[in-house]
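Hi Y.,

Following your request, here is the sequence exactly as I used it, all 620 residues.
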Amino acid sequence: MSVPLNPVVAEVTDRIAARSAASRSGYLARMAAAAPPKPTRAGLGCSNLAHGFAACSGPDRAAVKGATLPGVAIVSAYNDLLSAHQPLQEFPAWIKDAVREAGGVALFAGGVPAMCDGITQGRPGMELSLFSREVIAMATGVALSHDMFDATLLLGVCDKIVPGLLIGALAFGHLPAILVPAGPMASGLPNGEKARVRQAFAEGKATRDDLLVAESASYHSPGTCTFYGTANSNQLVVEVMGLHLPGASFIPPGTPLRKALTEAAGRRAVEISAQGEEYTPISAVVDERAVVNGVIALLATGGSTNHTLHLVAIAAAAGIQLTWDDFSDLSAVVPLLARIYPNGSADINHFVAAGGVQFLIGELLDAGLLHGDVSTVAGPGLDRYRQEPVLDNGILTWRDGLRRSGDLDVLRPVAEAFAADGGLRMLAGNLGRAVIKVSAVAEADRVVEAPARVFTTQEDVSLAFKAGELYRDVVIVLRQQGPRANGMPELHGLTPALGVLMARGHRVALVTDGRMSGASGKIPAAIHCTPEAAAGGPIALIRDGDVVRLDATAGRIDVLVPADVLAARDLMDAPADDLAWTGTGRELFAALRRSVGPADHGASVFGPAFAGLDELEFSV
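Below is the corresponding structure, written out as tokens. Let me know if you'd prefer a different format.
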């Protein structure tokens, strides 16, 4: 028996569809017009095709030359530097064998860059991080531009990589696309202990050697970091959107099951190509219902705030206009069902053991909080994603997932939710709009009213902390950190110091036009403030000593200064000019910085390319 859809979920979905009618229909028309002959490369001239198989050998050469078998593109974010992507090194060989056996031919079509926010945290390179999403999207487009392929396998895991791969693939939305993850590393040092050592180091009570030992015990092997940051939020969200094979998100690397799932993705790509029996282009998978499902999965698990940018940008790439108001209205009816660090003590492996994605999807479907009637890469309907993959005598199969949580401290049914609403909230007020992640913030800390201390660099905040200037009730205002100012870096370097202030009993909050992402923890942080300071946003009018009120309960963010006084003020500072924004390759991204849109439009440079998006009005 099908469960009636929650009326708010239905209403939000309907209004997204109505708002997106023109842009979505235009997108689908373009995808229909792009539908190729079968296979795609059959439409190439002889010279073009000869270039396409010149480097091939053996059966693959014959298959490409024959232009009759479906071609599968492998687009990979593999590199040796990132633990999450290092396991992808082996995947292309497995995929090629599996596709060949399934009656197709797979080629490595292109690699995309993949940077690690953990390595660049607090460094100049972090100012390239958000823009790397656009570069990855463009690199995916380059890989698919040869008109040689009938389906795509997207190999990637972390922060900007999965959104970039998806945006690029959606530009080729007439092709099926399956995301292929690598899986998390084994659990290491408990997250609470890691946080304790970081805070002790910030207070000068632990040495650098102590800190490095703790960090090394946390990040210790190939695989994705195990806390619930943007990388693991990526995996969970895209699985609920039907873009992974069921249960693929969190199978560890280096296991027979991970290899079997990777091979299965190759075979499935052939089956859902236009030459197969179940043609399923990505443009049919990523529709309004799938986008809403992705938002709900994020909210139900207290996932990364980065997705208030990424999901908006991904939706726009499919002609769908998603707004922060949609997040806010859905958050009011979606219960918080998971506590994964930094929203709890468990890591992603504990979440999997407690029932994982399968239990989560089952609970949300049974409560009428997900669209079940969607297209997925596994076939029609989301029910299939209640199942988990297993090897039975070496054969990949799926079985029903847990129907009861294995650990109620980590994962709960809707009837026993950790909170009645989602882990993300939208704020609005005379400082514009912002996002706050409250799933890890104690109720007592969700309203902070205190004098502001204004900064324009993380380094200045650190210096003030070390000088003892912040040991009081304070709202740290860190501006000129938005996409137009300096690329919108993440600001996790602030967390230990702010944690120390909170531990001393002070009322503390952060207000910034920068990001904190999936590692946002117990500090109440109003992030992604828009309009940003560099665009003349009101955050640029705040002065030291102004009282700022952050009220996550009421959804407000205000500076308590009379409107006429505020209107009479001049902007207090300016972003770095292009000449100052140099080093570590930043000058190469100056054009993106100049053309990037606001945070509530996805902080994307592609906005004007998607019909209708640049005309949206966002209320304050």
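The two ends are 41 Å apart (CA to CA).

Thanks again,
Q.
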